[in-house]
Design goal:
By secondary structure, the chain is an alpha+beta fold. It is built from eleven helices and 14 strands. The strands form three sheets. Strands 12-11-8-9-10-13-14 form a seven-stranded antiparallel β-sheet. A four-stranded antiparallel β-sheet has the order 4-7-5-6. The relative contact order is 0.13.
Length: about 300
């Protein structure tokens, strides 16, 4: 198994092109944090894409048994990654097809979750936002493809000229903007899953800290304690599972997480779908391997997992 750490995945999805070059800071973070994949897959060879040069890949390919389809497991699949792997010599038949990658990208468009988000709306014009502001004077606008706090805009009472320029640019590139009420967050958590051959497998829960959409850390707690703390019931999970089975499982293969918000009024809102590995999955696996770390905080600092 070859594990690739490409945390720039969300940036690549937002760009959508095969030859996108992520910022140097994102590539440096990938190189420093590649060992995160070894927490998810103990014993596997894990590296950043930048370290998988043609010479390395040639040796790795030569080591694969004839007729064997080797497992290539990235943090997340996107067209930029697949194009880069083709360039360094990975055979196309070992990779998801361009059509498959396009479908997976479309599933991660924020509009996919709108049936589960009654207070969120896809908007294309400032007038539509103004209508929402009449009943919700504080909104957050989200680019449909974005992550790690990027692509978010906070609006109070009225759109500014800069808001309108940003919105026009996003709509032109990504079809719409998602607008939803701003909420006072009491807790961020996620449900973790894996899909294999159309079968949905529930992995567990993740409780994490975020600031303005930017991930900070995970609290290492058993699933039962997280569910109890945030008030997530079996009925809620069954409803989500049925929707995922109908709309995601037939089309996607691999790990993913569904982020939720518990607001200050005790209400739970679905916030985001991440069709990739997540730090929640890392935390879940870490706690399973290190039960003595229960109650501590896990974060990624300078490419190293830190438990405090």
């Amino acid at each position: 198994m070859l594990c690739l750490f490409n945390p720039e995945h969300d940036l690549c999805l937002a760009n959508g092109g095969p030859h996108y070059m992520p910022p140097a800071s994102a590539l440096r973070f990938a190189r420093e944090g590649a060992s995160v994949m070894q927490v998810l897959y103990p014993g596997a060879q894990a590296l950043a894409l930048a370290q998988a040069d043609s010479a390395f890949i040639a040796v790795w390919i030569a080591q694969q048994p004839e007729g064997h389809l080797p497992a290539i497991v990235p943090w997340g699949w996107n067209l930029t990654l697949a194009t880069s792997l083709l360039k360094v010599g990975i055979p196309a038949q070992w990779l998801p097809s361009a059509a498959t990658l396009a479908l997976w990208r479309q599933l991660q468009h924020r509009s996919t979750l709108l049936p589960l988000q009654p207070e969120s709306h896809a908007v294309q014009t400032p007038r539509q936002v103004d209508a929402l502001l009449a009943s919700h004077p504080r909104l957050v606008l989200k680019a449909p493809w974005s992550g790690s706090g990027r692509g978010l805009r906070w609006v109070d009472h009225a759109l500014t000229p800069l808001d309108q320029q940003w919105m026009q640019k996003v709509v032109a590139a990504q079809q719409c903007v998602i607008a939803e009420p701003r909420r006072q967050v009491a807790a961020d958590f996620a449900l973790l899953y894996h899909i294999h051959h159309g079968q949905l497998h529930f992995v567990g829960y993740s409780l994490f800290n975020a600031l303005h959409g930017v991930y900070r850390s995970n609290l290492l707690l058993p699933d039962s304690q997280i569910a109890l703390r945030v008030g997530y019931t079996e009925a809620m999970r069954s409803h989500l599972d049925r929707w995922l089975l109908a709309h995601i499982a037939p089309h996607y293969e691999g790990p993913f997480g569904v982020d939720h918000i518990l607001d200050s009024e005790g209400l739970i809102h679905i916030s985001e779908l991440n069709l990739r590995h997540t730090m929640g999955l890392v935390a879940h696996q870490y706690l399973a391997a290190h039960p003595e770390s229960k109650g501590r905080t896990l974060t990624l600092v300078d490419g190293r997992l830190v438990v405090a």
